[in-house]
Design goal:
Blueprint (H helix, E strand, L loop, with lengths): L1 H23 L3 H4 L3 H4 L3 E2 L5 E12 L2 E12 L5 E2 L3 E7 L4 E2 L2 E2 L7 E2 L3 E11 L8 E8 L7 E8 L14 E5 L2 E14 L3 E12 L5 E2 L4 E6 L2 E7 L8 E2 L4 E11 L8 E9 L5 E10 L13 E5 L4 E14 L2 E12 L5 E2 L3 E7 L3 E4 L1 E4 L5 E2 L4 E11 L7 E9 L2 E9 L7 E3 L4 E4 L6 E11 L6 E10 L5 E2 L3 E6 L5 E3 L1 E3 L4 E2 L4 E8 L11 E9 L2 E2 L9 E9 L12 E3 L2 E13 L3 E12 L3 E3 L4 E8 L4 E10 L6 E4 L2 E10 L9 E9 L2 E10 L14
Parallel strand pairs: 33-45, 42-49, 51-52
Antiparallel strand pairs: 1-2, 2-3, 3-9, 4-8, 5-6, 5-10, 7-9, 10-11, 12-13, 13-14, 14-19, 15-18, 16-17, 16-20, 17-19, 20-21, 22-23, 23-24, 24-30, 25-29, 26-27, 26-31, 28-30, 31-32, 34-35, 35-36, 36-42, 37-41, 38-39, 38-43, 40-42, 43-44, 43-45, 46-47, 47-48, 48-53, 50-51, 50-54, 54-55
């Protein structure tokens, strides 16, 4: 009977122990098929529990690192000794791994009504997946076989992930503070060899005290491994996260473009000191990061791309060929539109021209003066200039757009427009209006004049350039050619000032060339554009042009000739010659009295000072009796100076030889670069007090 009683007592004890053991195993042991069941609280007593809050597996040099974080909450009224608790890790096939507790020295106990985190980690094989692992949370108990009992067991379903979904956030513990983190923006551009990655994440400290961002490491996890990202601003390495402030951290990196972009994840890790002062890299948070590589599709003039700043729409508006020396400048005009809702910086674009898929032209980028940013919905233009021999005619033209990103260059789009765009033409007498940002102006041909010389004639065109901006500015420098009716080009020289032109006012520009006498003036055109050098657009009068943009063909009016002493046009001045008399005094002195009224158009802020030349000549022999230069407002050597208003001069010239004839011709010229244009002519004789200008013109 006694033996039977003892056997029965032992069976009852075993049954009770078995029932108690079953009651200690959490539901998650049997139903760990979703993230919610994996992270379910497991109670170790009535009010105290342990909860798995994070389970991660990331590649490492030796294979992979598995890490698990528990929240241990003490809901009782007395401390709980953490030395009594541990975690065990094994695979379903029975392979065991030794877990290490992070910061073990400070994980001694949990005070009543408080919690702490326990992070365990271990190296595992490179091919191990989460669904192959079994994680046990145990309590040491020397009253049971093996001296420990399982408090909770956690398994992971196939495809289990603790990643933050796209657009979501995760609260991360930094010291005693809770910091919400999420990915804000990811842009990926494609270069010849790599993907250029720009990623921005934001962090907001939801606690009451500031905390410094730890020295995290950042990676993009791809199907083939991890690629490290670097901080754009190294000052963000230990950025102070003040309470409630939304902080933005920008990262950049590159990944070989042979790597698939599918399934990318953004992983934040932290190196921590482990046993024996070794370091281990543990995951902090992982974000699902869908990416879209910048649009580099081909075949159209319109494309769009997104960089770290925002989204831009680009359109290849025109491709032109402009003559320059013995080559053509290929000028591609690109419109850039800000498709975002905030101001965007002007993208730092370079362009490569590809002709017929075989010829590559490196181009110069020219931006509009003053362009720094683009308003939401606004558009500006960027011009790309390459050089090409004049005899080559392409069938296919593509412009590859690349954006400079730190030390790398990223191809962001490719646009095409194979037809050559005709150069914009303006008929004689019409105004050309330029609306490009920083170059708002109007240009009009006002006059054409031929200045005769001893060896060559100068053919000159006068332009009015009006400042259509709301601010004073120095007008652009110009360069270009005269184009004859049969298509020949002749170098054009430009005379302008560096004067600042006020809004609505004008600058007078003179364009001239030594035109061969056998070139017909009929059908002659002026091709001109805003001059550039290697640094961009030229202003004022300094610098040597290497080409031009925004070329325009101006039709030229026929040259007109008048012979009147009234309304003589000289630059911005109008001169009325009101008196001219001449007589001989004491046989050796010629006395000349001359008078004028000078008016000035003050709408011209900039112009080249003009000079008149008067002469009396006996035309049958070419003998010149008298010559006098007259400057208008400006002072020049050996010149009279006429100011605005009425002017009167008496000039006495002593004759050294007898050049007296019965009559002479008074000629009035405008002098330009040593050549002369006759403006007025009148037959005169010696007659005291007789004003020859009172007579009708010849």
């Amino acid at each position: 009977m006694r033996k039977s009683f003892k056997r029965s007592t032992m069976l009852v004890s075993l049954f009770v122990a078995f029932v108690m053991l079953l009651s200690a195993i959490p539901v998650s042991f049997a139903a760990a098929t979703t993230a919610s069941s994996v992270n379910k609280k497991v109670y170790i007593s009535g009010n105290s529990y342990v909860q798995l809050t994070d389970a991660s597996l990331i590649p490492s040099v030796d294979g992979a690192t598995a890490s698990f974080t528990f929240e241990f909450y003490n809901g009782s009224s007395s401390p709980i000794n953490l030395v009594d608790y541990w975690a065990r890790l094994k695979t379903k096939s029975g392979t065991k791994y030794t877990l290490t507790l992070l910061d073990k020295a400070n994980k001694k106990n949990v005070s009543p009504k408080s919690s702490t985190t326990l992070t365990f980690y271990s190296a595992v094989g490179s091919k191990v997946t989460m669904d192959q692992l079994i994680l046990n949370f145990v309590k040491f108990d020397f009253s049971v076989s093996g001296y420990e009992k399982t408090i909770g067991q956690f398994t992971f379903p196939a495809g289990y992930t603790n990643d933050v979904k796209a657009g979501g956030y995760r609260a991360v513990k930094i010291g005693g503070s809770s910091v919400n983190m999420r990915v804000n923006k990811t842009t990926v551009g494609k270069t010849v060899d790599n993907y250029s990655v720009n990623l921005t994440y934001v962090a907001r400290n939801t606690s009451q005290f500031g905390v410094n961002l730890p020295e995290y490491n950042y990676y993009i996890k791809t199907a083939v491994g991890l690629y490290k990202l670097s901080l754009k601003d190294t000052a963000d390495q230990n950025l102070l996260l003040a309470p409630s402030v939304l902080n933005t951290i920008e990262l950049t990196g590159s990944i070989p473009n042979t790597v698939s972009t599918s399934g990318w994840k953004f992983i934040v890790t932290q190196k921590v000191t482990a046993a024996e002062n070794t370091q281990v890299e543990l995951p902090v948070v992982s974000f699902v990061t869908p990416v879209s590589v910048g649009n580099t599709s081909t075949g159209t003039a319109k494309q769009s791309f997104t960089d770290a700043n925002g989204t831009y729409n680009v359109e290849l508006q025109s491709v032109q060929r402009m003559p320059w020396n013995n080559e053509d400048n290929v000028v591609a005009k690109l419109a850039v539109k800000n498709s975002s809702s905030t101001y965007l910086p002007l993208p730092d674009l370079t362009g490569t021209m590809v002709l017929d898929d075989s010829i590559t032209l490196t181009s110069q980028t020219v931006k509009n003066a003053g362009d720094i940013s683009i308003a939401p919905g606004a558009t500006t233009t960027i011009t790309f200039i390459g050089k090409l021999q004049t005899s080559y005619n392409w069938k296919k033209f593509e412009l590859q757009l690349n954006e400079k990103s730190d030390k790398d260059t990223v191809e962001v789009a490719e646009v095409t427009k194979s037809d050559v765009t005709s150069i914009y033409s303006v008929a004689a007498g019409n105004v050309y209006t330029q609306k490009s940002i920083g170059s708002e102006m109007g240009v009009k041909i006002t006059d054409v004049r031929t200045y005769s010389g001893d060896t060559n004639d100068l053919y000159a065109v006068y332009l009015d350039v009006t400042n259509n901006q709301s601010r004073s500015k120095t007008m652009p420098q110009w360069t270009g050619y005269f184009k004859s009716a049969n298509g020949n080009y002749y170098d054009a020289s430009f005379v302008k000032t560096a004067t600042t032109i006020t809004p609505g006012n004008k600058e007078q520009v003179i364009v001239y060339t030594k035109l061969p006498s056998n070139v017909s003036r009929d059908g002659l055109q002026l091709l001109m554009g805003e001059a550039i050098d290697d640094s961009g657009l030229l202003k004022g009068t300094t610098g040597t042009p290497t080409g031009y943009i925004r070329g325009v063909l101006f039709g030229l009016p026929a040259e007109t000739t008048t012979n009147s002493n009234k309304d003589i046009k000289v630059g911005p001045y109008t001169v009325d010659l009101t008196q001219f008399s001449v007589f001989v005094q004491n046989e050796l002195n010629v006395v000349i009295n001359m008078a004028s009224t000078v008016n000035r158009d003050y709408n011209y802020d900039g112009f080249t000072p003009s000079k008149l030349q008067f002469e009396m000549v006996y035309e049958p022999t070419g003998d010149v009796l008298w010559t006098q230069n007259v400057s208008l407002e400006s002072q020049a050597d050996n010149s009279l100076q006429w100011k605005v208003g009425n002017n009167m001069n008496e000039i006495t010239q002593k004759q050294t030889e007898n050049k007296y004839w019965s009559s002479y011709t008074l000629n009035v010229y405008e002098v330009f670069n040593g050549n002369k244009k006759k403006l007025f002519s009148k037959d005169v004789k010696f007659a005291p007090s007789y004003n020859w200008l009172d007579e009708p013109n010849n």
